[in-house]
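Hi support team,

I'm filing this because I wasn't sure whether my run with pyridoxal-5'-phosphate finished correctly. The job status page said complete, but I'd like someone to confirm that the output block is well-formed before I use it downstream. Pasting the exact inputs I used:
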Amino acid sequence: MTRPNRPIYLDNHATTPLDPRVLAAMRPWWEENFANPHSVEHAMGREAEAAVETARGHVSELIGASASEIILTSGATEANNLAIKGAARFAAGQGSERRRIITVATEHKCVLESVRDLAAEGFEPVVLPVRPDGLLDLDVLRHALEVPTLLVSVMAVNNEIGVVQDLAAIGALVKAAGALFHSDAAQGCGRIPLDVEELRLDLLSISGHKIYGPKGIGALYVRRRPRVRLAPLFSGGGQERGLRSGTLATPLIVGFGEAARIAGIEGLLDAGRIAGQREVFLTRLRAEVPGIRVNASQEHRVAGNTNLTFPGGVDAQALMAAAPEVCVSTGSACSSAAVEPSYVLAAIGLPEAEARSTLRVGIGRFTSPAEAEQGAALLAAAWQRLVEQD
Ligand SMILES: *Cc1c(COP(=O)(O)O)cnc(C)c1O
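And here is everything the job wrote out:
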């Protein structure tokens, strides 16, 4: 995977590279069999359908589900919308009195906005704060659940600060309160063990391109026993048990399945190796940038994430511009004019000035020790130059 003069890619939260084995698995479904997997009247269609079902099996196995509980979507954004809006609308349609939908301030925008959008339909969005370590305080959740609640959505792993929520403890509280439990596991799947039975999840969202699979594909796990019912977002031909109409994207699904299969076998091995590269990266950076700080929980986190506040008031945008060979990111949302500091960093109590000096570094399956070392050296040198300019 290494090419000379290729930028050093340390942005594996935004997306991961396609694993070459995934590309190999996808190729025949682009080049040879293009049939519609719903065309079961002919051999090519049936072959495509079989490939889709094999892939669905791999995705389900990664999370301890059965294949019939996997609804294929265009990604985690769609899965999160379907889970949250679908569950709320179905329950309301059945005459449920429960209106409260609870989520957390550090969720991905697509979760926060789905929950907030439901206010217009008469639901009661509740966005809970997190502690300075990025974790949800269980007492805060317990208190919020005193009002009858329809759904609780808490992410498995945060995409900016990498913290791992205690889904087992959260799930126990949510189920005791009789609410549905959803998790956005786009950053969790394939990185930490996730079992829908152990965690008592009713709904779980996954994204293909965060697990070294293709972009534009993902899944929503929907529990069958006891059955969780959703209102679909799309009207159409009734594919995916009526929950997601539209022709299935066979090549993307085959790639997603292969990525899930590999994650199931190699995810924990990856984590061990990635933790080693992160150590290499941080050791070098700490030696050259005294006072650099790693944000949020140091224990409850995934191996690849490092959210770093640089000292000396250096601007993160300027730092990235001064180290163009390294691909990293801020959690900031760039609107047309201003760069808004990350709401996730605000939620863990980082002052705005510090948030503006903060970078997210994501090490992944294909990051070599040399890249980790060189990435740190380049960022440190850029920081040094900016500090000296002042
Ligand atoms: C990437 C990501 C998403 C969106 O996934 P897509 O498949 O790109 O729609 C949602 N939530 C989290 C936590 C993510 O990291």
